[in-house]
Design a protein that fits this description.
It is built from twelve helices and seven strands. The protein has 291 residues and is an alpha/beta fold. The chain has one domain: Vaccinia Virus protein VP39 (Rossmann fold, 3-Layer(aba) Sandwich), CATH 3.40.50.150. Helix 1 packs antiparallel against helix 10.
């Protein structure tokens, strides 16, 4: 029997839902707390060389696809401390920035106030947002979802598109190798695999891309590959890993003790050397026309 476009889309939606497993059933429990704890760390990237370069690459890609910031209305979902909201506002856009974490928004508001930038920061979850009550439907020239769990399924992606009258931008992991410690600890101590949707295995961009493709959209796509190394006190590195892994996999006292022992043993001169190998994807498409 020949498959229709509708059949293909429905089958892919089923595949997307199946990929999420039990992890998504946790919903938003602990989400805001998790990101609040990381807000200071993320805010540092606003001024460091890597952070500015990454933001410049994204804005350059948007310009290549036809978007112009000056005079545009922009909605930034999962905006963090303003990684993209701030440079877009500096370029002349009127930005509405949404995040679940008040700590992230505090950093954004501080910068916006200091520079007198046109940014409206809202503490809100995209998972449960009512776009009609918010007045967001078909309001924005560009809607962004950059490396954020805010857009996690068909419903949140469709909601994102419903707010745009022209451009949408989405980016996420294609393959996230992660530090070797994360992979080993997941398999040996927590007894988990490593190919989770948002976890070390990556693959998060595949699902929205295929959904759009099957519906007739042809997004412009860019792929990036980054390797990074970092050195940190072994105890701090262990606590950081415990916090990260606990976000999706509960760590009991015994597991935490084993993780601390792992880092202490792997350290040299009291320092643990982390390294990661990451592939990410970016895509831009228009909602009012399929290519």
């Amino acid at each position: 029997m020949e498959m229709t476009q509708k059949d293909n889309v429905a089958s892919w939606i089923d595949c997307w839902k199946a990929s999420m497993g039990k992890r998504e059933k946790k919903m938003e429990v602990g989400q805001a707390d998790f990101w609040n704890k990381r807000s200071d760390e993320f805010a540092q990237h606003l001024t460091d060389t890597k952070g500015r370069k990454r933001a410049g690459e994204i804005l350059g890609f948007l310009e290549e696809t036809g978007f112009r910031a000056k005079g545009a209305r922009v909605l930034d979902l999962g905006c963090g401390p303003g990684t993209l909201s701030i440079p877009l506002a500096r370029a002349g856009a009127d930005v509405t920035s949404l995040d679940i974490a008040s700590g992230m928004l505090d950093h954004l508001k501080e910068t916006a106030k200091k520079e007198d930038l046109p940014i409206n920061a809202l503490e809100c979850s995209w998972w449960t947002a009512d776009i009609d009550k918010l007045g967001f439907r078909s309001r924005f020239d560009l809607v962004l979802a950059s490396m954020t769990p805010a857009v996690k399924d068909v419903e949140t992606l469709d909601r994102m598109m419903a707010c745009s009258k022209k451009y949408c931008y989405y980016s996420n992991f294609l393959q996230r190798g992660g530090d070797r410690a994360h992979r080993e600890l997941l398999s040996t101590i927590l007894k988990k695999g490593t190919d989770h949707h948002h976890g070390p295995g990556g693959g998060a961009m595949l699902y929205p891309f295929m959904y759009l493709y099957l519906k007739g959209y042809r997004p412009d796509v860019k792929i990036s590959h980054r390797r990074w190394k970092e050195e940190q006190n072994w105890a701090e590195a262990a606590e950081r890993t415990i916090e990260f892994l606990s976000h999706e996999h509960p760590c009991n006292a015994a597991a935490k003790k084993k993780i601390l022992a792992y880092y202490e043993q792997a350290a040299k001169d009291g320092k643990y050397r982390m390294q990661s190998d990451v592939y990410t994807g970016m895509m831009v498409w228009t909602v009012n026309g399929r290519k």
